[in-house]
Amino acid sequence: MLDNLDKAKSAVEYKPGQIIFYEGSPPLAIYCIKSGSVKLYKTGGKGEEQVIRLLGPGDIIGYRALLSQEPFAATAETITKSVICTIPKDMLLEILRKSPEQNLRLLKKLSVELRISEELLLSRTQESVLQRTARFLLFFSQGISHSEGENRPLSIPLKRKDLAQLIGTSPETLSRTLKELASRQILMVNRTQIVIKNQEALQKIISRFKKN
Question: Helix, strand, or coil here: 202?
Fold first, then answer.
């Protein structure tokens, strides 16, 4: 997070399933994920959830609504144990008014996130389901504890339909893709956990897209 904002922010530990902010509520702060993972989702007319993005350490959420003075466009909910830093709206705006340097650094951060969003959109249209699944698994694994080493289990607390939404496929296709990765000895999969046995192999799957 921006250096001069350290004194203004407070860190709070969230349990899995806790709401950081609700869709439609006014933005009173921005939030930085120090550790853990967060899902953003929108609620449909019938109350169904549509997961639109998964975020991890270093990501900032809520800034678009705050800077545009619009309500939050989605709900943010922790999906693993997380530490979230909160910077109140008034403090953030006061610091930005007094520091052109911080304005530039925040713009740089927003530009990087825009590029990431564009890359994710591009991956939806040009990457295969296999590549998108590999990308998600590597991303998610980076947000959990590394104390168990490379072959650690990933307990992904998302329903298969939510996971499929994030990857941009159907639950049935996702299931077949996970089975394929397991048959290639890259993963071990059961109903509740995924174990990454070969991170290098997942990275090679993603790299094929970059070379094309």
Answer: helix
Residue in the block written with tokens 């991890």: 56
pTM: 0.71
**47 Cβ partners below 8 Å, 6+ apart?**
none
Q: How confident is the model at residue 183 (pLDDT cuts 50, 70, 90)?
A: very high
Give the pair of three-digit tokens for residue 160.
């298969």
Cβ–Cβ < 8 Å for 82, 35: yes
Rounded Cα distance between 140 and 53, Å, is 12
The residues pairing with 49 across neighbouring beta strands, listed in sequence order, are 43
pLDDT tens column, 85-123: 999 998 888 878 887 777 777 777 777 777 766 666 666
* Separate counts of helices (H) and strands (E) for the chain: 7, 11
Residue with tokens 């109140």: 88
Tokens of 144: 């959990």
User: How far apart are alpha carbons 137 and 145 in whole angstroms?
Assistant: 14
Tokens describing residue 87: 């910077």
Q: Are 198 and 185 in contact (CB under 8 A)?
A: yes
CA distance between the termini of the chain: 34
Taking only the tens place, the pLDDT of each residue in 31-51 is: 999 998 899 999 887 777 888
Cβ within 8 Å of residue 98, ≥6 positions away: none
Sheet with 10-14: strands ordered across: 10-14, 82-88, 29-35, 60-61
Q: Judge whether 76 and 37 are in contact, CB under 8 Å.
A: no
Token code pair at residue 123: 């991956």
Structure tokens at 161: 């339909």
